[in-house]
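Its record is retained below.
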Amino acid sequence: MGSKLIRIVISAEPTAKGRPRTKWINGQAITYTPTKTKEAEDFIKFRLLRHKDQAFPAGVPLRLTCTFWRTKSRYLPRRESLPWRKPDLINFGVLICDALTGILYADDAQLTNIVMRKRWSPNGQGFITLKLEEDKLQGDNNADDNI
């Protein structure tokens, strides 16, 4: 019996998780999530709901592989083969991990291995590819060998 694997393509331009903002109203500090971040996370959650029945139970270590396929601006040089500019890769990852929580896994603490990439989209449309599977220790006897 093979291990469980979930593969998903989300047709949306990757969005980085924005930092929480704070404003003062009548002497009280109100902290909120930026609108763009909230809308992007809600859209991804909505797209993932159809896969909720495939969710991994709590307590299962997971490996997440995701590629953020970005639309390349026509103003960037052609020789720029990888999207090394902002937004940061890690902020794309934080948004995805938060969106997956409660839908495909119980808690993002279950993630024991994450592979993330930023790439230019081959078709001119932004999208995100996800692969989520149980993380097994096969071949990982000495973690220092992988450095």
Summary: The two ends are 31 Å apart (CA to CA). Strands lie at 5-10, 21-25, 28-32, 62-70, 111-120, 127-134.
